[in-house]
What does this fold into?
Amino acid sequence: MSTVKAITGDAAVAEAMRSIEPDVVGVYPITPQTIIVEAYAEYVARGEVQTEFIPAESEHSAISICVGAAAAGARTMTCTSSQGLALMWEVLPIASGMRLPIVMFDVNRAISAPINIHCDHSDTMGARDTGWIQIYSENAQEAYDNFIQAVRIAEHPDVQLPTMVMMDGFVISHAIQRVEVLDDAVVKKFVGERKADYPLLDMDNPVTWGSFDGLGGWFMEFKKDQMQAIENAKRVSLEVAKDYAKISGREYGLFESYKMDDAEYAVIVINSTAGTAKTVVDTLRDRGVKAGLIKIRMYRPFPASEIVEALKNCKAVAVMDRVPGYVDIGGPLFEDVQVACYQEGVNVPLVNYIYGLGGRDILTSHIESVYSDLEKIAKTGKVATPVTYLGIKE
Amino acid sequence: MVATIKELSEKQDLLSPGHRLCAGCGASIVVRMVLKSSKKPVVVASATGCLEVSTTIYPFTAWRTPFIHSAFENASATISGVIAAYDAMKKKGKIKEDINFVCFGGDGSTFDIGLQSLSGAFERGTNFVYVCYDNEAYMNTGIQRSGATPMGAWTTTSEVGKAQAGKRVHRKNMTEIMAAHGGYAAQASPSHWRDLVMKAEKAFEYDGPAFLNVLAPCPRGWRIPTDQTVEFARQAVESKYWPLYEVMEGEHKITYKPKKEIAVAEWLSPQGRFKHLLKDANQPVMTEIQTQIDKEWNRLIKMSGETT
Ligand SMILES: Cc1ncc(C[n+]2csc(CCOP(=O)(O)OP(=O)(O)O)c2C)c(N)n1
Ligand code: SF4
Ligand SMILES: [Mg+2]
It folds into this structure.
């Protein structure tokens, strides 16, 4: 049913895409995502997939191609990174507003300037409120698993929303890892065929897509429906995860709780840094420190009450953002966690760390310093520095 | 054989009456004529602009055929996606019909912001017809200059004052830009309907990307009477301001030659957007416009291998 391979994160995503074999793929190259595009172009050239593959003249067109194809009723995919996602931005809310279940892979990379090809999350964090579902992955295996599940989540009748899946650039996209790859037939059966509502190409029942809606129209009602749909994605993703566990043996939640049951000090992270942080948690646990970790998988919709439930008994919590917030109240994940705690009436001391910008290394020593800060905060009950830049050159 | 006017009039309009385009809007005439020229069912894509906002006011629609709008600059990419889906589903046997695909964009979305998307779709050999309804400005946002606005024209971003007499530079030659892509490109006018229908039929039948640049007078922006739309389109052709020609894979052909010599001033003068050109001080602008028109006509004569 599955084969173990030693492949890069990009190759794992390309494998998933090949097995899914979408009807239409519209893409444009950008590091560190390019390998996915190249691999797919090879599958096309070798006749291994029947996909209509369009190497567009820009990411703006690549995503617009996906919009046209998805409205026509096709299963549609794209991949990008960084500036590419920034160029797509205008079309992202169009895709979600038109309720098109496009599935995208974004390999996280910093946004210019300075131009930098390495990892941080400023690209997808800038798109977090475009109405897309966002799913993050720690490693190549998760990237592979999440990408396949994203098809089912996006196309679910209660959701019908575009979905982007992420992994860290280079650290994951270019690093060879152990990945269990499912057989094509198993993946195809899992994703099934797309059944589109009101496809544009239904010539007997002509529909108008992308209407104008002004004052006195239905704009707010559309948006309210969208809000409900993205909220539904929480439940649907868990149902899909159950089905996926049956074919893979791996089941995913909205986030991963690592040694959180009795944790006093918790760190919340996104993507590959979770791997490094788990090592630190293990070391601290050996020393008797009750350390724990929360790794966000689904970031949009945000599992607010679920996260608060997981951390409410902690003595202090650190939220790590791999994106410059440009506000002195901290990064986006920090804001979300703070708001969630406030809403649930949970008053755990929270502190924010900005790290790894433009691919800056994040070491176990950095994360250890975070946990020792948490111990101090717990003792004093005071957060002296709410936002800290980790690993900055003096 | 080009369809007769009787045949055309018997065909149902795919853009129905009741849309909210202004009285006398050239765009709706162009769209209806082009759509009548399709011998197969059509799927329409459109860019943001007057045509789109006035025909799709939710929960109504004026389109009796599948229609999609996504944004201002990406109509060509959007229809590329629709066609890719069509090809994919045809391969799988999910769709049987033969369908024509047509994209309507204003001059703003064609000449300016959507040029890249359009060029990309043509380079990829996408089998569709792109129709620019050229009203020579961004009308939907209130008459701003575009790359299609002629020299001397007043718009709200090419104002008239002591320091300048309307737009300072000439319009870009979009038909030639698209002809350089190697498919079929033509310039047409709703006043010469047989010529327009002939070109639209050719464009639909052409196996590959085809471009039609069709003059679509805008009474509101041109400051002309709403019952004179077609007349102004005709005078544009007769004065050689708007030459009717086509380019099939690099071969130029003039499809209509005006019989009389008419100075461009005759066409410009009654239009409110050019009224400042009648002042003596602005005579050099008028002369420059005429010079450019003569140059372009002579170039077309040469390109089509004719002598006069
Ligand atoms: C990216 C973007 N920029 C600007 C606009 C605002 N806008 C909408 S329509 C339009 C002008 C359209 O001009 P044209 O293509 O000539 O069509 P017309 O309205 O003249 O029919 C502009 C500037 C927009 N919708 N999107
Ligand atoms: S402003 Fe001009 S182009 Fe727009 S609808 Fe009115 S007449 Fe037509
Ligand atoms: Mg215009």
